[in-house]
Amino acid sequence: MNKKQMERWEKVRARGKKRFILRYGVFGWGLSSGILFGILMMLEGSENITPVNWILNILLFMIFGYVWGLLMWSWTERKYQREQK
């Protein structure tokens, strides 16, 4: 981690873990990936895309986004702590 990355992480970190996970994981990755997946399925011509499937796909991607956000927080925080030493 260089100095600029550390400064950026300090700002993100100050806003909190919960906000990071929601912003970058649940909404940033999960919601956008769920919508993109649905669009790709429609373009492919899948007949199984119903409104219920859309909602379930998006919810599933948002759950995975939460896990992804949590992992990214932990990974970045570990890198930051190593650099602090």
State which percent range the strand residues make up: under 5%
Describe the largest sheet.
none
Number of helices: 3
How helix-rich are the residues, as a percent range? over 70%
- Structural class by SSE content: mainly alpha
Measured between the Cα atoms of the first and last residue, the distance is 12 Å
Assembly state of the chains shown: single chain
SSE ordering: HHH
Please tell me the overall pLDDT. 94
Evaluate the radius of gyration: 17 Å
Low-pLDDT residue spans: none
Shape label: elongated
Say how many strands there are: 0
Keywords: Membrane, Transmembrane, Transmembrane helix
Describe what this molecule looks like in 3D.
It is a single chain. The protein has 85 residues and is an all-alpha fold. The protein has a domain at 28-85. Helices cover 88% and strands 0% of the residues. It contains three helices and no strands. It is elongated and about 55 Å long.
Notable characteristics:
about 90% helix, transmembrane helix, elongated, transmembrane, mainly alpha, about 80 residues
Topology:
Blueprint: H1 3-15, H2 17-44, H3 51-84
Helix pairs in contact: 1-2, 2-3
Structure summarized in a few sentences:
The protein is built from three helices and no strands. It has 85 residues and is mainly α. The chain crosses the membrane at residues 21-42, 54-75.
